[in-house]
Design brief:
Blueprint lengths: L1 E2 L10 H11 L34 H18 L1 E2 L5 E2 L1 E6 L15 H16 L4 E6 L5 E9 H7 L13 H11 L4 E6 L12 E6 L6 E11 L4 E10 L5 E9 L2 E10 L4 E9 L4 E7 L10 E5 L6 E5 L5 H11 L4 E3 L7 E5 L11 E5 L6 H6 L1 E3 L4 E2 L16 E4 L6 E7 L2 E7 L6 E4 L13 H15 L3 E2 L3 E3 L4 E4 L16 E5 L2 E4 L5 E4 L6 E7 L2 E9 L3 H4 L6 E4 L10 E2 L5 H23 L6
Parallel strand pairs: 4-5, 4-7, 7-8, 16-17, 16-18, 18-19, 19-25, 27-33
Antiparallel strand pairs: 1-2, 3-35, 5-6, 8-34, 9-10, 10-13, 11-12, 11-14, 14-15, 20-22, 21-23, 23-24, 24-25, 26-28, 28-31, 29-30, 29-32, 32-33
Helix pairs in contact: 1-2, 2-10
Length: about 600
């Protein structure tokens, strides 16, 4: 027996105190006298003092001793053996996609890991508790902390490993915090980590096995708006030691779209380019191969890309610059020349600044001052040019050998993107509602339009504007990629503030609310499949997330085994609420009963015979 509060045993000192009081206490029972007149003369009788008598065994003495004993036990809180201590297993589950694999027709590595957990909990006893932590870039506590196995086992149905290759350290750190000094640490995986240092007190059990596997490592859907035909680009990789035969099928719902049989050499790759008609919407691609060890990387769901046309209004005066810009736009896909009211991008002279309320992008082309005197005073430069390479507008722009003509002083407040010394040549205006760029140049005299940098610069500008249009910019993602899209143009939400429509992300029957804003970022989804963005009852867009990780699909490095903990702690037990707490409650109740009974005995009058 142990005591949670040993100092409470000092209450046992009350027992001899009670005995001493009863030993020296002299009681004079009240006497009823019939004649009060016989006591007319008062007399004081002095006694010799208290003396020790034989201890009277009375009901009051017994009640007071029992009450003091019960109170002492309640305060000291006795513990009988280890009835309130159980084994606490803190298990980290490897959420890597390879854990979903396994030999064809046999239990998967995930199922073997669950069976290992079940056997451990059977050994520890039915009273033991467990905490389950799922690894990942953001570890998740799947069950716990410290819950019975019956509860944790039901939570395991939600564990479907699909994560790409990731670091286990965050999950290990969380497990150590939960375990502290009272938990047994266990890591269930399909391979023994070699490059990471696991906690010294953690035991590692691997249930993996070396397997053959064929995986889809790249899946891209391109759509040509001019022809109305799409092209699927697939790359299949044989991550095995033997040549593999594979059957590739594509369906839209129940309608077959294509079917192809291929053979991939050992460790080799095979690229497929498959034509699909427009208007399919969604495509399910399946790859089947004998001896395939992982099904997750054999299935791909793709959403058909949508045509996002950029409307450009060219408001340059008639002349070579206007013709040059129009020819450049004709060479770009999905670009339409429209009026300024319907334009996403307005190209005009630099003296016509963008309207304050406009959401359209703006490109102003020099000369900044069109007067004859200002044009004669302008400078012609040949570099060296300082280019802001981190800006995507200048991706691929080098300006090698370019003569930049017609450079004039810039009076507007702007951020230089291309400059010579302190003179901006291409700059982004500051304080405008939409993106506005100023091109300090005279195109009729400059050689920029004749260099390879001109079509690159214009293409970058168009694609940047296209990516900033409302709606999704991409429709197919890999697991681990974040999703960003624009909900509306400008900074003011056009939704009715009196009845705002909720923005929801829907997937596989579940949904979660997204915060409203002009630009919305969705954290990388951790489950493959098709996701839908809904605003009220309308659909904003759909996108697909697929598992494409050649490193994780490689099952050649998996093997069974284990690694014992370097610092085992078999005696550490987890304290739970005492199962005999009802005894303390009963003792408290009995103590109160004894005190009340003792009070009644002491206060009850005694009748003399």
């Amino acid at each position: 027996m142990t005591f949670a509060n040993p100092l409470g045993l000092l209450g046992l000192l009350s027992l001899p105190v009670i005995l001493g009081i009863h030993l020296y206490h002299r009681r004079f029972p009240p006497l009823e006298i019939a004649g009060l007149h016989l006591w007319a003369v008062e007399s004081e009788v002095r006694l010799a003092g208290r003396r020790r008598d034989r201890l009277p065994i009375t009901l009051t003495l017994i009640l007071e001793l029992l009450a003091a004993l019960f109170l002492t036990l309640i305060i000291s809180q006795p513990r009988f053996g280890e009835v309130d201590s159980v084994t606490h297993l803190v298990a980290v589950l490897d959420d890597s996609a390879s854990m979903s694999g396994g030999p064809p027709g046999e239990a998967t590595f995930r199922e073997q890991a669950i069976e290992e957990l079940r056997q451990r909990m059977d050994e520890y006893g039915s009273d033991s508790v467990v905490t389950l932590i799922q690894s990942g870039a953001r570890p998740v506590m799947l069950a716990g902390p410290a819950v019975p196995w019956s509860e944790a086992e039901t939570r395991l149905s939600a564990w479907q490993p699909q994560a790409t290759r990731h670091n286990f350290a965050p999950a290990w750190d969380l497990a150590q915090q939960v375990a502290d000094q009272t938990g047994q640490l266990l890591f269930l995986t399909d391979h023994i980590p070699t490059t990471e240092t696991n906690p010294a007190a953690m035991e590692i059990v691997s249930v993996g096995r070396k397997l053959e596997n064929v995986a889809v490592t790249t899946a891209v859907w391109e759509f040509d708006a001019a022809t109305g035909v799409g092209t699927i680009h697939l790359r299949l990789t044989n991550l095995g030691e033997k040549a593999a035969d594979a059957q590739v099928t594509g369906r839209s719902g129940s309608t077959p779209i294509f079917e192809k049989a291929i053979t991939i050499s050992a460790g080799g790759k095979s690229a497929l380019n498959l034509t699909v008609p427009g208007g399919v919407g969604k495509l399910d691609i399946d790859v089947t191969s004998p001896r395939d060890g992982l099904v997750l990387d054999n299935r791909v769901q793709l959403i058909e890309p949508q045509v996002r046309t950029v409307g450009v209004a060219v408001e340059l005066p008639e002349g070579p610059a206007r013709d040059l810009f129009r020819r450049s736009l004709l060479a770009l896909p999905n670009v339409a020349v429209v009026s300024a009211d319907a334009a996403d991008l307005i190209v005009t002279t630099s003296d016509r600044l963008p309207a304050a309320e406009s959401n359209a992008w703006w490109l102003g082309i020099g000369p900044l001052n069109p007067s004859e005197a200002a044009r004669k005073a302008a400078k012609n430069l040949i570099g060296p040019y300082v280019i802001e390479k981190e800006n995507p507008l200048l991706d691929g722009v080098t300006l090698a050998g370019v003569i930049w003509a017609g450079v004039q002083p810039v009076t507007q407040e702007a951020t230089p993107l291309i400059s010579v010394g302190k003179t901006p040549l291409l700059a982004q205006l500051v304080g405008t509602r939409a993106a506005a760029y100023l091109l300090n140049i005279d195109l009729e005299q400059s050689s920029l339009s004749e260099s390879p940098d001109w079509p690159i610069l214009i293409s970058n500008l168009i694609e940047l504007r296209r990516s900033d249009l409302p709606g999704l910019n991409r429709w197919n993602y890999r697991l681990g990629e974040g999703v960003r899209f624009r909900l509306y143009n400008g900074l003011v939400d056009p939704a009715d503030e009196s009845d705002p429509k909720p923005l929801m992300l829907v997937h596989d029957g579940g949904q979660r609310t997204l915060p409203r804003g002009s630009v919305i970022d969705i954290l990388p989804p951790n489950t493959a499949g098709v996701y839908e963005i809904r605003e009220g009852d309308s659909t904003v867009g759909r996108f697909a997330v697929n598992f494409e990780d050649a490193e994780e699909s490689n099952l050649q490095l998996l093997f069974p085994g284990g690694r014992q903990s370097a610092q085992p702690n078999p005696t550490a037990l987890y304290q739970i609420d005492p199962k005999y707490s009802w005894i303390l409650v009963a003792a408290t109740f009995l103590t109160l009963v004894l005190l009340l009974l003792n009070w009644w005995v002491v206060k009850s009058p005694r009748t003399a015979a």
